[in-house]
Amino acid sequence: MAKPDRHFMNVFSAVLGILIAISLVLIGISRFADSGPKGARDTSDPLMQAQAHERIKPFGQVAVAGEDNAGLAIEAPARAVPAGGPGAPAASAAAKPMDPKMIYDTACMACHGMGIAGAPKTGDRGAWNPRIAAGTATLYKHAIEGFQGSVGFMPAKGGRADLSDDAVKAAVDYMIAQVK
Ligand code: HEC
Question: Checking phi first, is residue 55 left (phi over 0); if not, alpha (psi -120 to 50) or beta?
């Protein structure tokens, strides 16, 4: 063989050897990674099957006349904020006590959290003290009925007509508590 050819063969063999070595290492690693607990993918395991069925079951179900549709009973979703509006079952409102912070977070924080549109910022004593001085009754009234102040417009119940008066009062109390 001519000298350049021999040189080529040497380099070529070396590269080939390195590649073979790498693939052997990868085979070893994959074997090692594969050695999980015995039966980890035992597809005949009823528990495995049940879990798989649960994961791949259809997204929606259709009620069919004449069939057993018991599993399709509509349940009212759990509400974070109890609605006191007309038609709201009083029992569920009573069953789930109002969490003032939750009401505040969902209905009031959007404006009062950062002081958007002139809203007195929660926790800002300078903004709240003169308002609190006007009396809690006024604050309740303004929060429930809405009010146009000198700095901005406070929508009735923060725009959440579904909130009960008591829920709004609780949120006002919560905001007052943040500056005490
Ligand atoms: C769309 C924005 C917005 C949302 C949402 C909002 N507010 Fe306000 N709120 C304002 C603004 C603006 C003011 C200040 C009005 C002014 O004094 O000019 C204000 C003022 C108030 C005041 C002071 C009233 C007074 O007499 O000084 C209270 C209390 C209040 N909001 C309670 C609430 C409560 C409780 C919620 C949630 C249920 C809420 N706000 C949601 C914008 C908002």
Answer: alpha
Rounded to the nearest angstrom, the distance between the alpha carbon of 74 and the centre of ligand 1 is 36
Ligand 1 center–CA 93 separation, angstroms: 24
Contacts of 142 (CB under 8 A, 6+ apart): 149, 154
pLDDT tens digits, 26-52? 999 988 887 666 555 667 788 888 888
Out of 99, 111, 140, 141, mutate this one to test ligand 1's pocket (max ligand atoms within 8 Å of CB): namely 111
Return the number of other C-beta atoms located less than 10 Å from residue 46's C-beta: 8
pLDDT digits (tens, 9 = 90+) for 50-93: 888 888 988 777 777 777 777 776 666 655 554 444 544 444 44
Q: To test ligand 1's pocket by mutation, which of 108, 154, 173 has the most ligand atoms within 8 angstroms of CB?
A: 154
Chain CA centroid to CA 147, Å? 32
The phi-psi region of residue 179 (left if phi > 0; otherwise alpha if psi is between -120 and 50; otherwise beta) is: alpha
Q: What is the pLDDT of residue 157?
A: 92
Q: Is the CB of 168 under 6 A from ligand 1?
A: yes
Atom number, ligand 1, closest to the C-alpha of residue 171: 35
Please give the Cα distance from 40 to 92 (Å, whole number): 44
